[in-house]
Amino acid sequence: MTDTQPQQDPLRQAAETMRLVRDRCVWTRQITHRDLVPYLVEESAELVDAVEEGSRADLREELGDLLWQVLFHAEIASRDPVEPFDIDEVARGLTEKMVRRHPHVFAGEVAETPEQVLVLWNAAKAVEKSTRTSVLDGVSERMPSLALAQKMLGKGAPLGLGAAPVDAPSSEAELGEALLGLVALARENGWDAERALRERLRGLSMGIREAEAGLRD
């Protein structure tokens, strides 16, 4: 009977594969965090496609591709001469944060509805981000404009800021049709729909920050 080595954990094996690629691939060795950003955006978009219209095999593959981006960034970070950290520290920090934000799972709190879960989540997040001075701190302006609009409207709602709904659709399909109609209107008039929304969002951002400043005064 021969001795056999225990099989390596697949995630650990993936991290080790990334390390070897970083060491031995001449292209990979020169890549920086900034260089990876376009690939991260592309892989994220492909994962969205897989979720919305792909097969189970597509979904599994695209999740793997996105995981590779995480491993890639962590491997680059592990070699930073000033503030290095590796994938283990990334995973450890994630676990600690998720435990803090789910006290109804790990700390005896009670949450019987999604709304109660959100209250606990936001309370834990507020403690973690206590140095932030605005609800907009941490909201990336590089988000797609529609996703950014939805995020900012949620942040502005408690302050009474937002936009008045128009001819409310009754389903997501009707919403898509209405949005496409607005883009068609912009096209007919020579307007830039993307720029128009982003400029409106800049105004909303200023309004939110001014309202917050007023509450502090």
From TrEMBL:
Stored InterPro entries: MazG-like_dom, NTP-PPase_MazG-like_N, NTP_PyrPHydrolase_MazG
Domain NTP pyrophosphohydrolase MazG-like, first and last residues per copy: 32-106
Domain of life: Bacteria
Alphabetized PANTHER family for the sequence: NUCLEOSIDE TRIPHOSPHATE PYROPHOSPHOHYDROLASE (PTHR30522)
Official protein name in the record: NTP pyrophosphohydrolase MazG-like domain-containing protein
Organism: Microbacterium lacus
